[in-house]
Amino acid sequence: MRTSRRGSSGSSQVDSPGYRTDVLEVLAKLLSDRTDVRPGKMFGFPAFFTCGKLFACVYGEGVGLKLPEDTVRRLVGKPGIIPFQPYGKPKVREWIHICHDRPGSFSKEAGLFKASIRFVAGATLGGGPRATKRPTSPASK
Q1: 93: buried, middle or exposed (CB in 10 Å: 19+, 13-18, 0-12)?
Q2: Going by DSSP bridges, is the β-strand pair 38-42/5-7 parallel, antiparallel, or unpaired?
Q3: Is residue 31 a part of any domain in this protein?
Q4: How many domains in the chain?
Q5: Measuring CA to CA, which residue among 38, 43, 72 is closest to residue 55?
Q6: Does 65 fall in a domain?
Q7: Over the stretch 88-104, which tens digit does the pLDDT of each residue have?
């Protein structure tokens, strides 16, 4: 596992949880044939983007993955899936943290990665769950 130290707003350093290079290798291979996915970095961690927006980040012992809130609620608590809480902060809405001992197990989550890409791309293009329609008032009819 790669680890590092991260500066904070004060003079002290915060220990980074690092990331597993074996997990990064599996994800890079899993997503390599997707023309709508680009690798990159987010806060120094390997990450994956679609439509210019982050959808997955290799962090600590696993992968942070963005999904709709109802999906997150349904998945949290299943084996290997916990709320995503980078640097011990409060859990991040619409994110899960998938952790498996064996890196090959992440390949079995391909459906979740595809769902995340669809979710983030849809929200980016205005067709996803974040696009809301304002209710019309009776006066405007």
Answers
A1: exposed
A2: unpaired
A3: no
A4: 1
A5: 38
A6: yes
A7: 899 999 999 999 999 99
